Amino acid sequence: MKNAVSLYDMNYVHRLVLGNDNPEAQPDEQKYKKQLKLLNRCLSDTPKGKIIGQEKNFYILNIGEHQVVMQYIVYHIGFSRKPYWLNQ
């Protein structure tokens, strides 16, 4: 079990939302690209994070007589220490 994730080593957990989690706001492609860029950095930069959990959420909007389902996902990424670049 060389690739097993031990929660014992996780000293910092970051909650990262991917998608539109605000039904009042319009979807923004630039925001989504920024979120994906941060996710990739969390999983590849030093200190390297690991996904330890996820939430899948949705909400239903009624627009006129149509219903629209909007979805977003939240990743919980564990680190051995808090990355210095995370809140820049």
Describe it for me?
- The protein is an alpha+beta fold.
- The protein has one helix and three strands; from the N terminus they run βαββ.
- The protein has one helix at residues 29-44, and strands at 12-19, 50-63, 66-79.
- Strands 1-3-2 form a three-stranded antiparallel beta sheet.
- A hairpin with a 2-residue loop joins strand 2 (50-63) and strand 3.
- The protein is elongated, with a radius of gyration of 16 Å.
- The relative contact order is 0.31.
- The mean pLDDT is 88.
Keywords:
single chain; 88 residues; alpha+beta; 3-stranded antiparallel beta sheet; 3 strands; 18% helix; elongated
Helix content: 10-25%
Q: Compute the number of helices.
A: 1
The average pLDDT is: 88
Q: Rg from C-alpha positions?
A: 16 Å
The major beta sheet can be summarized as: 3 strands, antiparallel
Question: How many DSSP-defined strands?
Answer: 3
> Which range does the strand content fall in?
35-45%
Please trace the helix and strand order, writing H or E for each element: EHEE
Shape field = elongated
Strand order of the largest sheet: 1-3-2
Derived structural class: alpha+beta
Cα(first) to Cα(last) distance is 35 Å
Poorly predicted parts: none
Topology diagram in text:
Elements: E1 12-19, H1 29-44, E2 50-63, E3 66-79
Antiparallel strand pairs: 1-3, 2-3
